[in-house]
């Protein structure tokens, strides 16, 4: 049995559980656990989907809480390029800096103005932004953020700000990302996932206007839409459960 251990009634965890049940051929072969009280059946293959209470033996058992500041510090210590960040507000906070919260989802903390932040990051002007799904040291999917509405935010590329992730074809002559950039994105994503102690994660990476790469965060429980995202995670989890 495969168990998806999520901290709440996550839409993605529910969707992933159903996809696993379909792929495995039975409702009894995959289960979604939502609390500290519920316990996985003996010998179950447990996948930690953003839960601090999941067992350490679970896939992504290294996740112990969504402290984004701690994650930035871990990435920086491992020499993964990240935005410049400070614990105290810079004097010129409104001139190129963002107040951030340690615990945030989809950049919802970026609605905060002024000095109300747990830490502060410098705005990195990026020409493009990508998400690499790294799973046990392999890239299972790589996409680029694209505007989905006309009035999208100019540089905060989140779903709530009018952006979405598209996964283009890798066929020669069609791939808008290109193999050289893909190789670089994969390498930095794998390094970032390892630096924070995860087995898998959705890594958000910006390509700066100067042509360098910077990691914004590693998502321990990335949102999975029906289609490519859900399909690749379902297949990757099933394959990992048999190793």
Are there runs of 5+ residues with pLDDT below 50, and where?
Answer: none
Q: What can be said about the biggest beta sheet?
A: 5 strands, antiparallel
The assigned structural class equals alpha+beta
Strand order of the largest sheet: 9-8-7-10-11
Q: Mean pLDDT, rounded to whole units?
A: 91
Count every helix, treating DSSP H or I runs of 4 or more residues as helices.
Answer: 4
Number of strands: 11
Distance between the termini: 14 Å
Q: Approximately how much helix is present in the residues?
A: 10-25%
Q: Rg, please?
A: 18 Å
The helix/strand order is: EHEEHEEEEEEHEEH
How does the overall form come out from the CA principal axes?
Answer: globular
Strand content: 25-35%
Structure summarized in a few sentences:
This protein is 23% helix and 26% strand. It is built from 4 helices and 11 strands; from the N terminus they run βαββαββββββαββα. Helix 1 crosses helix 4.
């Amino acid at each position: 049995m495969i168990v998806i251990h999520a901290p709440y009634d996550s839409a993605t965890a529910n969707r992933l559980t159903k996809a696993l049940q379909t792929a495995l051929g039975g409702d009894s072969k995959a289960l979604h656990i939502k609390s500290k009280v519920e316990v996985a059946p003996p010998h179950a293959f447990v996948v930690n989907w953003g839960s601090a209470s999941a067992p350490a033996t679970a896939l992504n058992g290294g996740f112990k809480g969504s402290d984004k500041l701690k994650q930035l510090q871990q990435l920086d210590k491992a020499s993964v390029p990240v935005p410049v960040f400070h614990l105290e507000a810079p004097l010129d906070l409104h001139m190129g800096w963002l107040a951030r919260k340690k615990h945030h989802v989809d950049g919802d903390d970026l609605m905060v103005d002024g000095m109300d932040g747990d830490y502060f990051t410098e705005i990195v002007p990026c020409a493009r932004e990508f998400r690499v799904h790294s799973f046990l040291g392999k890239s299972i999917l790589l996409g680029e953020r694209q505007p989905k509405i006309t009035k999208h935010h100019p540089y905060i590329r989140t779903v709530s700000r009018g952006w979405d992730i598209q996964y283009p074809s890798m066929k020669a002559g069609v791939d808008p990302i290109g193999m050289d950039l893909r190789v670089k994105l994969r390498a930095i994503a794998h390094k970032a996932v390892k630096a924070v102690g995860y087995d898998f994660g959705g890594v958000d990476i910006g390509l700066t206007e100067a042509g360098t790469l910077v990691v914004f965060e590693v998502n321990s429980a990335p949102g999975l839409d029906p289609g490519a995202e859900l399909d690749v995670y379902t297949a990757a989890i099933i394959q990992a459960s048999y190793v």
